[in-house]
Write a structure and sequence with these properties.
Radius of gyration: 30 Å
Oligomer: single chain
Distance between the termini: 29 Å
Number of domains: 3
Number of strands: 24
Number of helices: 18
Helix content: 25-40%
Shape: elongated
Length: 553
Amino acid sequence: MARMVPFPMLPTKSSAERRLYEGFLEQLDDAYVCYHSVDWVLAGPRGPIEGEADFVIAHPEDGLLVMEVKGGRLSYDPATRRWTQTGRGGAHLGQDPFKQAEGELRSLVQILETRDGWERWKPSFGHAVAFPDGEYTTAAHPGAPADIVIDRRHLGSLQRRVAEIMAFHRRSGRAPGAEAMDEIAQALGFRVEIRTPLGLRFAEEDKKIVQLTDDQAWVRAWVVKLKRAAVVGPAGSGKTVLATEIARRMAEGGNRTLLTCFNKAIATHLREITGGIPKLDVANFHALAHRLVTEAGLELPSEVDTGPESTFFNERLPELLMEAADRVSTRYDVMVVDEAQDFRDHWWPALLSLHADPDEGRLYLFADDGQNLYGGGLPDLVPEDARFPLPANLRNCREIGDFVSVFYKGSNPPVTKGPDGRPVEILGYADDEGLARTLRVVLTNLVEEEHVPPRDIAVLTPSGLAKSRLRQRGELNGFRLSAEPAEGEILATSIHSFKGLERPVVILAELGDKHEEDIDRFVYAGGSRARNHLIVLAAEPLAVRLRERALSV
C-alpha cells in the first residue's frame, strides 16, 4: 500500500483524480510516496518559481514522476495544436497537458537543485499524463508519447504502469535512495515518515555510523599514554572498535599483546577483523585457558557442562590456568579485555598470571555494566582517574537506541547519535503456536517484502537451544533457523551468545519465558544488537508493558 500525502484525500471536484488516488493507495507498494494536489514556490533571480501538480510520485530507486490528470473525453487538433475536453461544453484546454506536466517537472527540479547534496542524491525524473476516462494509443504529437500515459486500460494495473513510465525516464547511475525521498518531502513542504524497504536503507544508514569518532579518538589518545585504563560505555558506543584499535597498535609496536573477551562468538569476530597481526593473540578467556592447560599437560575432564553456570568453566578451568602458568612460557606485555564486565572476580588473577608484569603492566579494560549478564564487574585493577566514558551510542539507529536506553541500568543513560531508523516493533502472542506464527509473518515480510537478506537477520532468545522451544523447531515456513551463520538461513541463537555482535535486523523472542526482573537486562543486551531495525516478540501481558515503557521514550 502506497504512502499517500495528504491522507485522507483532500476534497476535489475531479472524479478522475479521486479514482487515481484510490488506485495508487491500493495498488502501489509501500516504497512509493504519492503527493496529491501539491504546489511549490521558490524565489528566483527573475521572480518566484511556482509550480503545481495533480500528483508527484517518488520512489527510492526509480526516482520522481510529476503527473497531470485530465478527466472526460479529450481530442487533439494537430492543425491548431489545441486540446478539447468534452463534458465542459467542448471547451479548449488552456495548455497542452504534456507541456503542462513537463513545465511542472522543470520548476520542481529547479527547486530540488537548490537543496544540499543535489549531485549526490539526484534522482531520475520525468513527467506523465493520466487520461482515466479514455484510451490513448497513438501520440498526438512528438512531445506526447503514449509511453508516458496512464489511461483507463491501466487502472487495474497501476503498479506495473507507473514502474514502466519511471523506467522510460530512468537515467543510468542514479539510485537516489532515502535521502532523495526526504529532500523531495521537504521541498514540497511535507515532513512525513518515508517508508523505504529496509534492504535499501541499510547502506545509507550505515554510512552515518562512523568507525572512529572524535570522542573515540580522544579517548584512545589518552588511554595509550597510560599503563592501565578502563573505557566504560553503553552498547553501540564503539568499545569493541576502540579495543581492537588499541590491541592492533600495541602489537604493531612490538608488544606481545592479548585481545580477549568472554564470548566465543566475539572472539571469532575479533580474529577475523584483526587478520593475523604478528604478536597479537586473539582468544576468548576459556579457549585460551583450555589451550594453555592442554599445553601444560594438565588433566582435563572428557565431558563438561558447557552452560553459563558450569562449575568447570567458572571455577575449575581458571584454577587450572593458574597452575598452567607456572609450566608454560606464554607471557603478554599488553592485555586488552573487551566486555570486561562479564569476567568473574576470581578469573582476574588467573588471567594476570599470564602477564609479563601482573602488578603494573599494561592492561586495558572495556566494559558496559548495563550488559552484565553473568554477575561480574570491573575489578579494582584500574585507578578511578584512569576510567574514561564513551557516553554516545553510535551503532544503533536512534529509534533503537532510545528504546533500549529505557532498560539501561547504568548511572548515565546513553545518548544515541545514529540516523533515525524505524520505530521498534513490539508484537504480542498468546502461546507457542502464536509465537511461531508471528515469527513466520515477520520473516516473510522482512525477506520477501522488505528485501532483507537472511544473513542480515538474527533471532535472539534468552534461553539456550536446549530450553528454547522456538529454536528447537529448526524451520518455519521454509525459513531455516541455524545456530551458526549459514548462507540462506536465519541465525537463531541466545542473547548471551550474541553479546558484543550485531545484525542490521534483530528479532527478540520468547521474552515472556523469563522472570520480570530479568527482562530489562535481556531487552537492553539483546535489543542493542540491532543496528537498523528491532522487532520484539513477547507474550501478550509483557508486550503490553513493553509498549507502555516504549511510549515513555
